[in-house]
Design goal:
Elements lengths: L2 E7 L5 H12 L7 E5 L6 H5 L7 H11 L9 H12 L1 E2 L3 E5 L10 H16 L3 E5 L5 H4 L6 E8 L3 H17 L3 E11 L7 H8 L2 E7 L2 H9 L11 H12 L11
Parallel strand pairs: 1-5, 1-6, 2-4, 2-5, 6-7, 7-8
Antiparallel strand pairs: 3-4
Helix pairs in contact: 1-10, 3-4, 4-5, 7-8
Bound molecules: adenosine-5'-diphosphate and magnesium ion.
Length: 259
């Protein structure tokens, strides 16, 4: 069984940063690579992780539509797409990365999307753990395009808008009864003077807060300099807070993160 953690929330609240930290702390999960999925079309999980992604699934879908009439007699469309899709799964140290991207071109993607769902299931089944950096909107939940998720982390910053989005995500999930087992709030970028406000933010979100991540100037510095987030120094407050978060997630058979 694949244990899956998805990270959602309003844009700009820190989903990608937190996803990258989770990947770096959970990679080599029980000795195996984990699957990192960048499911945000506007995202840059690969950059946050400091790796290059050559081919997105969106581009693979376009290539299939562009080349479907040029396939040789021995290759079916499904085989060709499977080949493209497998090429989109890139291997790195301790994790594999799949970037979903976006299909830009015109044309009907229903056929490919159905194929995609099947291949995604097969792919996910090969890993014991996956971390998904999701898109900011709620559509993917209402369209039920997400697979079952063990833990959904809803990230907010200490703002009314962020908390409102978090509440909407929580309410939507409850009303849809989608296959999400646990939902937690993560309050990110909290400056020291706001620490006493986190209880109020938690109450307003209607979700249980599992982690408070401080505003950390080194995160911003690394982002500005294009340095990989996993290289943050051990004394980085954000890194420390995400380590504590991982400990609390109760991921099956996961060996404790070393300090
Ligand atoms: N704990 C933090 N302290 C300081 N800056 C942060 C923190 N978390 C995220 N950031 C910064 O906030 C911005 C948005 O983060 P990002 O992870 O890209 O958000 P999202 O993926 O939700 O859009 C980035 O510039 C990132 O460096
Ligand atoms: Mg992002």
């Amino acid at each position: 069984m694949t244990f899956s953690i998805a990270v959602s929330g309003k844009g700009g609240t820190g989903k990608t940063t937190i996803s990258a930290l989770l990947v770096s702390l959970l990679k080599n999960y029980n000795g195996n690579p984990i699957l990192a999925v960048d499911a945000d079309p506007n995202s840059n999980l690969n950059e946050a992780l400091g790796v290059k992604a050559e081919l997105s699934v969106g581009r693979a879908r376009e290539l299939l539509l562009e080349n479907r009439d040029k396939l040789g007699p021995t290759q079916t469309k499904e085989e060709y797409f499977n080949y493209l899709f497998q090429s989109a799964v890139e291997e790195f140290d301790g994790f594999d990365l799949l970037v979903m991207g976006r299909a830009e071109g015109p044309g009907c993607y229903c056929y490919v999307n159905n194929l995609l769902r099947k291949i995604m299931d097969e792919l996910a089944g090969r890993y014991q753990l996956m971390v998904v950096d999701t898109e900011a909107g709620l559509e993917h939940f209402s369209r039920r395009t997400t697979r079952d998720i063990d833990i959904l982390l809803v990230v907010t910053d200490p703002t009314a808008k962020g908390v409102l989005t978090a509440k909407r995500v929580g309410d939507l999930i409850k009303s849809l009864n989608v296959g999400i087992h646990k939902v937690f709030l993560v309050i990110n970028r909290v400056p020291p003077q706001f620490m006493d406000k986190v209880k109020d933010l938690e109450a307003a979100s209607g979700l249980k807060c599992i982690a408070v991540i401080p505003e950390d100037s080194s995160v911003q510095e690394y982002d500005l300099a294009g340095k990989p987030i996993p290289d943050l120094p051990n004394n980085s407050p954000a890194l420390k807070a995400v380590k504590a978060l991982v400990e609390k997630l109760e991921i099956p058979q996961f060996q404790k993160v070393k300090p």
